Amino acid sequence: MSDDNYLNKIKNFIFEFEKNKKNLNILEFGVREGRSTKMFLELCSLNNGKLISVDVDDYSNLFNDKNWTFVKSRDDEFINDKHYFQEKFNIILIDSLHEPLHVSKLIYMYWEYLSVNGSMYIDDISWLPYTKDNWRDHKYTENINRDTFNEILSIKNSNWSNIDLVFDFNGSGLCRIIKKNDLYL
């Protein structure tokens, strides 16, 4: 997917949904080139928000913004650094290791730190572009994205009254899980 397609997917599914919310507290797993980080920093400047970005690679020099904190850590170990969890997050983006059991692990690990009516986003949940003879034909990615999608459906089916679920199948897809109450999954 080109950078323009990725940015359009992120802006249309996340930015448009979140842009009018004030005082956002955002947690992002996975930075890479900083495409979603840049969009989140735009949200922060619009609404007095704060962003924490976590990645195993050091991307601390990508941005110089008073609203941004970069943490070099594994996403499943970041939870051990409790001083970052003084306030609940309104947005959590999981865009790190795209493996169904890892995604599920992160959903359960960080759920209690998501505010009620907050959104947890998961990138790369669509297998459609990766099917045989399609524009990104890749069997492994097709299978892993389909398995991630099914894992998210399984979480929804076990927590019907706790979450709302929305999928977007543009490009490699995105999922929005909206927290309806403060019950544990």
Briefly, what is this?
With 185 residues, the protein is an alpha/beta fold. It has 4 helices and 7 strands.
What this model shows, in words?
- The protein is 32% helix and 24% strand.
- The protein has a seven-stranded mixed beta sheet with strand order 3-2-1-4-5-7-6, sandwiched between helices.
- Strand 6 (163-168) and strand 7 (174-179) form a beta hairpin.
- It has helices at 3-18, 35-47, 100-110, 139-158, and strands at residues 25-29, 50-55, 68-72, 89-94, 114-123, 163-168, 174-179.
- The model has no long low-confidence stretch (mean pLDDT 95).
Low-confidence spans: pLDDT under 50, at least 5 residues?
A: none
Mean pLDDT score: 95
Instruction: List how many beta strands DSSP finds.
Output: 7
| First-last Cα distance | 33 Å
> Tell me, what's the shape?
globular
Describe the main β-sheet briefly: 7 strands, mixed
- The radius of gyration computed from the alpha-carbon positions, rounded to a whole number of angstroms, is 16 Å
Features:
185 residues; alpha/beta; globular
Give the topology, please.
Layout (H helix, E strand, L loop, with lengths): L2 H16 L6 E5 L5 H13 L2 E6 L12 E5 L16 E6 L5 H11 L3 E10 L15 H20 L4 E6 L5 E6 L6
Helix pairs in contact: 1-2, 3-4
